[in-house]
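Quick question, first post here. What does this chain look like in 3D?
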Amino acid sequence: MTITTDATPKTHPFEADVARLLQLMVHSVYSDKDVFLRELISNATDACEKLRYEALSDAALLGDGGATRITVTLDAEARRLTVEDNGIGMGEAELGEALGTIARSGTRAFMERVANAKDAEGSHLIGQFGVGFYSAFMVADQIEVLSRRAGADTAALWSSDGLGAYSIQPVDVAEAPARGTRVVLHLKADATSYTESHTVERTIKSQSGHVPVPIFLKDGPDADPRQIADGAALWTKPKAAITREEYTDFYRSVAGQFDAPAMTLHYRAEGLHEYSVLAFVPETKPFDLFEPDRMGRMKLYVRRVFITDEAQILPRYLRFVRGLVDSDDLPLNMSREMIQDSPILAAIQKGVANRLLADLDKLAGGEAERYLGIWDNFGAVLKEGLYEDYARRETLLGLARFRTTTASGEWRSLKDYAGSLKENQTAIYYATGGDLDRLASSPQLEGFRARGVEVLLLTDQVDSFWVTAGLDYEGKPFKSVMQGLSDLGQIPLLEGQAPPATASAAVEGFIGFVKSTLGQAVADVRVSERLTESAVCLVAPEHGMDRQMEKLLASAGRLGAQSKPILEINPRHELIAKLSGLDEADTSLREDAAHLLFDEARIADGEQPADPRGFSARLARVIGRAVR
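> Answer (accepted):
Ran it through. Tokens below.
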């Protein structure tokens, strides 16, 4: 591209995250570089859709630019590939903002993943994530972007070699499109295949053949353009006319990912409100799944005009879903802010969420393995709805799957759990923690295992929140095995299990001594009904937060004073029996034993001793006496 201008280019360094990303792109060894074409065409499509939207209130923006279209031009002799659209375009400031910084949190999340990945893995992630415009530097050693905003009488040129800086300069409007953007890639020597007509046409048809903007291909700078994609919106076609491959291609285009959809939802709602839905549940976790803003990624169209991707069509706990809704009823002349408050949109939001959850439930019942793949990826997010969405809690509880103490590592539903309730069992028992293996071996579970009572093992951070929301399943409340009294007395033991022993006077006396010795470090010291094998364990008081919730809030700096734990002691454990028999005059050893029991319980709970140095000294003294 030859640009004649007297203006001096202004050079700017890339934002730090962009510079890191470009370094990865330039040195990428990722083999499937075709992703860059999908990303550039996706950007061009968005620009055309934005023009259609803004033209609703200002028809003059269309000018003489004609109907929206995307044109890809090949130039084998000059080793160039050009992607041009006649969409909304950008001004000089917009070019710097759009191409010099990373504006979307998902790309930042991608960079965090890449920062911790090996080189080969990082290159592979490019293809999975796309990362937009910057992916073009995998195939180009120089990129020029010439753009003119619709309705403007100025144009600007952005240029970079991807090595750390970019330049922007104004250009004569005669050099620029009537409106829109022209992206010129000066291809690397090993990327000349992207000037071959059959290669580019095949790639565009497979990756972007169903975008709602027509795509034309020019086999040379002076060749006539020929249409290779008709711009017919995929969601307007009947399901029977769409192949799985076409759904996958469209999903990759709209989602900006490179996997395949694990579930596709395509239907048209008719009745009081009419709208079309094409939504996908990804096969892999999106990079921005746990971003703090927790925003959805569903696009809103009105009669095939793109309106916004910030309408929050689905609840935040369904933010992993990608796709769009096209409404026939929403007014096109309503502002994006007013649309968000529209009762029509509220009805659409309710209908789409209900239908999606119903289809997930249907999948869970009919294709359990496929559903478990979805739950494995997004269960932690779906469970946020148990805390946030009161109206759909029953549905979400039915969709929930859990690891438990009796399922040999398999996922279990609450329906499965209810079918294994023991005689006199009045609650659904659970344990929360950060590690499944440690949780499964927690001493607090011993009494439940002795009675064959199944316990849910909850390891996601959100579990500590939703279990406090007052939920029940079929009339059975959720109860922590690590908080309050164990409530096990009415449930019979399994055959061969010894009944709980009554604490002897000596044990009662020792428990009283431990309580007085630990003082303010504990809320209470008492005989345990839940321990059968271990000597001690810690539990939280009956009222208030459980210990895992306190740990989470403390780590986030959102907890003041922590509650004091309760130390439970197994009265029939051999160690407790021997400690109870110590000479009461041997105060030093009894005090060391009391503190070591407390520290033992903390360690079993995944914590450090309250006083590591004191713990070490006490342990040394006790071992010293034992080996005399």
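The chain has three domains: 10-229, 235-370, 505-541+563-626.
Confidence is low (pLDDT under 50) at residues 123-130.
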